[in-house]
Amino acid sequence: NFYNDKPPAANHVFSLTSGKDEIAAIAIKEEGSISKSELSLVHRDQEVHHTKRSSYGAPRLTQLCILLKRATICNIRDLKIAFLKLTSTCLVALLIGAVYYNFGQDGSKLPSNFSCLFFIVMFHFYAVSLVNILLYPLEVSVIVREHFNNWYALSMYYLAKMLADLPYLILSPLLFVTISYYLTDQPREWDRYSLFLLANVVVTILAQGVGCFFGVASNTQVGLFLMTTCTMPMFLMSGFFIHLDDLSPYVKWLSYISIFRYALEASSYAIFGFGREPLECPEISCPYNDPQKFLTDMGLDASTYWRNISVLCFYIVLTQIAVFVALKRRISKSKER
């Protein structure tokens, strides 16, 4: 037997290492010296004890389920803010429908319809990103306190937060696109509607990540300033205000990192692309009653819908990683204080 072969001092030490470290030290001092091998066993047992104490109280899957449930309950209880968000979404969609009423099938108003698509993309991005910049910093103090208490892994919290916000990020563009799509008389084709909706859902999810990043990386005031400053060049290089072929070579590269360019191209291709037939022309002359000609003149004929969606999805992954790194860094700084 291992314990029977050891001297009383070693037996006493081994029996106490599962407790406090100070007790083990006292035992060694009182009972006399022990061998180096026995002391290494004591230290190894102490290290295992420290590891067990620092581990989380529940498996990661259990953490995820509990955090997801809590985040969902918080979203449900905060019905006032959710109601205001959805109400404002519907009101703006009705306004868009009134301004661009029946523009979708009118060949003489195709450029104006293009403006409608651009506004829808802008609304989804800024409506979601600005709200997250304002609200997300309020949660950081709670996250820091709970993480310091070793309640859960930070990765599980962030994953639960993303999943809990996903229903709103889908419902909001669903309401907006459905209302505006019908009132503006866009083509009554299920495929086009689905592709247009998908493009706006992707933009909304991307906007949530961008807003969270600037909200976590800095305070609210600085975050608002940095977000608008960083997105304005992308906004300008979207291809809506200026033809991309007319850009100077010194700034043209900015168009390739513009999230608004890929969002606008995906939305435009969903409505005007895929071999859409020429539109009816109620006027004497309609330069752009042919959607394919309009896409060519706007420099969008070479783009494809799924390529643009893929780039936007890549940006989503990139921003989510950036948010997690920024959140982890902020918590690390709080530990140092």
In short:
The chain is mainly α and 337 residues long. 75% of the residues lie in helices and 0% in strands. The protein has helices at 2-5, 8-16, 21-31, 36-54, 60-77, 79-99, 110-148, 154-183, 190-217, 220-236, 249-252, 259-272, 291-297, 305-336.
What does this structure look like?
- The protein is mainly α.
- The chain folds into 2 domains: 2-54, no CATH class; 60-336, no CATH class.
- It has helices at 2-5, 8-16, 21-31, 36-54, 60-77, 79-99, 110-148, 154-183, 190-217, 220-236, 249-252, 259-272, 291-297, 305-336.
- Helix 7 (110-148) packs parallel to helix 14 and helix 8 crosses helix 9.
- It is elongated, with a radius of gyration of 29 Å.
- Mean pLDDT is 81; it is low at 1-34 and 41-54.
- It is found in: Membrane.
- One of its GO terms (molecular function) is ABC-type transporter activity.
- InterPro entries: ABC2_TM (IPR013525), ABCG_transporters (IPR050352).
- Keywords: Membrane, Transmembrane, Transmembrane helix, Transport.
> How confident is the prediction overall: mean pLDDT?
81
Strand segment tally? 0
Number of helices: 14
Largest sheet: none
Could you estimate the helical fraction of the residues in percent? over 70%
Counted up, domains total 2
Q: What structural class is derived from the secondary structure elements?
A: mainly alpha
- Compressed to H and E, one letter per element, the order equals HHHHHHHHHHHHHH
Strand content: under 5%
Radius of gyration: 29 Å
- Contiguous runs where pLDDT drops below 50 for at least 5 residues: 1-34, 41-54
Distance between the termini: 50 Å
Globally, the shape reads elongated
